[in-house]
Amino acid sequence: MYNMAAPKCVLVSFALILICEISSSERNTRDFLKREHTLVKPYQATSTNNPTWDFIGSTILTSNYIRLTSDHQSRQGAIWNSVPCRVRNWELHVQFNVHGSGKNLFGDGFAIWYTKHRLQLGPVFGSMDYFVGLAIFLDTYSNHNGPHNHQHPYVSAMINNGSLHYDHDRDGTHTALEGCEAQFRNKPHDTFIAIRYHGTTLKVSLDIDGKNSWKECFTAHGVYLPQGYFFGASAATGDLADNHDIISMKLYEIDSPGDTAQEYYGLPKAENVEPPREHVDDHRNTVSGWKIFFVIILVLLGIGVCGVVGYVIFMKSQENSRKRLY
Ligand SMILES: [Ca+2]
Question: Which residues form the L-type lectin-like domain (predicted)?
């Protein structure tokens, strides 16, 4: 009996190992790469290789890179995926190259987007302000001399429900979720950024040292992003310029069998945003809050007075009618 069972066990476990190995090798290859959200060479807009991507503004395509802006002033360019992303947990890998002739003066940087709206040029690294979704900024130029607690270039994230303004003059410091310094410009080797969104955790990592390994930039918890938004990348130059090149954008689905997270349908939000620091608008908001309070008190008093006056008039008219009756 035992002699018969033993080879079966070996066979079964051998088959299991085979299945496990096949599925784990699949995980790391193109099965989990979402083709419709991926942009790789060759880039010809007319070719079937990139039918799901649109290019606008100063963007030019070559055989080796997509140039959002060239090293010239006042440019805006962007690329946008035309397929909304239904993947709940994902990781986006972007190979980029920011380079130019400027030694000390260069800018402004570029942004990677996961937003509700797409294909709208604007003032936020070449894309629209008051956006709805997630932005990752790779800001190469410090716009103000205020009390920055970090150097540039600076990588940061911003979550917006459409109500927040990106304050370019202050490098968006009042609306940044998290960030890190990163010297990614004018590198002789390939440079990459990874944006991972799993559950409600957003993690941004960089591979910019030519060591072929990811280094964490930051991790933020309590980040809520709905499905169905679009991936994109945009860049802008102003008085200062740089070449902002995208080499590839690859989206990986990272759902695992144990994931039971509920789908989120609300507006983008981040639970752990630092309270804004020394911002004039906040002061104004508290003042307007008090104003509203006083207005409500005045309205209530007004209603009270009207009520009393009305009651008195009513009683008098009742008295008069009674007098007339008798
Ligand atoms: Ca800046």
Answer: 31-254
Of residues 1 and 274, more confidently modeled? 274
Residue pointed to by tokens 């689905």: 253
User: Under 8 Å CB-to-CB from 32, ≥6 apart: which residues?
Assistant: 26, 252, 253, 254
Return left, alpha or beta for 119; rule: phi > 0 is left, psi -120 to 50 is alpha, else beta: left
CB 76 within 8 A of CB 57: yes
Q: Are strands 76-81 and 53-57 parallel, antiparallel or unpaired?
A: antiparallel
State pLDDT tens for residues 187-217.
Answer: 999 999 999 999 999 999 999 999 999 999 9
Dihedral (CA of 171, 271, 164, 77) sign: positive
pLDDT digits (tens, 9 = 90+) for 31-78: 599 999 999 998 865 545 568 999 999 999 999 999 999 999 999 999
Three-state secondary structure call for residue 223: strand
How much distance in Å is there from the Cα of 183 to the middle of ligand 1?
Answer: 14
Cα-to-centroid distance, 236 and ligand 1 (Å): 11
Query: First vs last Cα of the chain: how many Å apart?
Result: 118
Centre of ligand 1 to C-alpha 191, Å, is 20
Find residue 80's DSSP bridge partners. 54, 232
Measure 141 CA to ligand 1 centroid, in angstroms: 4
Q: How far is the CA of 215 from the centre of ligand 1 (A)?
A: 23
Question: ω into residue 153 within 30 of 0, thus cis?
Answer: yes
| Cα angle 140-145-151, degrees, rounded to a multiple of 5 | 40
